[in-house]
Design brief:
35% of the residues lie in helices and 21% in strands. The chain is α+β, with helices and mostly antiparallel strands. It is globular, with a radius of gyration of 20 Å. The chain binds inosine 5'-triphosphate.
């Protein structure tokens, strides 16, 4: 049973639920009777939710999907986009939720494009347009970066995932996943992300690594929560 379950519940709760016999270890009681941690994830993107909930389920954490489209600022930095979105959404949702922003950065001739403009590029020219931009050009590597932003009621904290490095395929392949998955081949693999299952993608992805850092922070184990205002 994951330790995370314990951290999700206010310390005052156990005694109101049960009075353990003296000979039973109180910590053990907490593990077996308390409800799993539940947290709200705000996104309009079904696939993001699927990935996040699959990764959380493995850790005994329940994710509630707040299906909502919010307006993103145009900025050069994924972290700034996530933080500003979180601040804005907090006016509507209060606290205890997280959201994330993800960018695909293509090297070589594209010099890091689309990066923070990934949403716009994906919606407008899509994978076909991205491949067209690369036709006959120098192809450098590419990477994904995810930043999670969490509002705890006092401050917005951001969690930057490890980057997922890879290359852009010559043509789209695979039918799983979403967005740029069909054209992204992670380093050390021959398949695109769209040729992997959700759990395979979660083993290596930018999103799951940002999520791990966030969950470590929530579990009170440290993590790299960065206060961006207040405190
Ligand atoms: P929300 O902002 O509502 O969460 P979104 O789809 O607009 O959803 P982003 O702005 O973070 O999310 O993502 C920008 C785009 O980048 C997204 O629409 C996808 O096309 C693409 N993208 C993000 N994560 C991806 C991933 O893991 N694999 C492939 N493409 C991804």
């Amino acid at each position: 049973m994951p330790a995370l379950t314990v951290c999700a519940v206010p310390p005052s709760m156990p005694s109101t639920l049960i009075s353990p016999p003296k000979h039973v270890n109180h910590i053990f009681i907490r593990f077996i009777i308390l409800p799993a941690m539940r947290i709200r994830f705000v996104t309009s993107n079904q696939w993001k939710f699927n990935e996040i909930s699959e990764a959380c389920r493995r850790k005994g954490i329940e994710v509630e999907w707040v299906r909502m489209k919010y307006e993103e600022i145009q900025a050069d930095d994924t972290e700034e986009i996530a933080r500003t979105s979180c601040e804005r959404v907090s006016a509507q949702l209060g606290s205890g939720f997280f959201l994330e922003d993800t960018g695909l950065y293509v090297g070589g001739a594209l010099g890091g494009f689309p990066g923070p403009y990934s949403s716009y590029v994906s919606k407008t020219i899509g994978n076909a347009g991205l491949l067209k931009l690369l036709e006959g050009k120098e192809r450098g590597g590419a990477y994904f970066l995810t930043v999670i932003a969490y509002f705890d009621g006092t401050v917005v904290r951001t969690f930057r995932g490890g980057i997922l490095e890879g290359t852009i395929a010559d043509a789209p392949r695979g039918s799983n996943g979403f967005g740029f998955d069909p054209v992204f081949i992670p380093s050390g693999h021959s398949r695109t992300l769209a040729e992997m299952s959700t759990s395979e993608k979660n083993m290596i992805s930018h999103r799951s690594s940002a999520l791990s850092r966030f969950l470590e922070y929530l579990a009170g184990r440290g993590g790299n929560g960065k206060a961006v205002h207040g405190q």
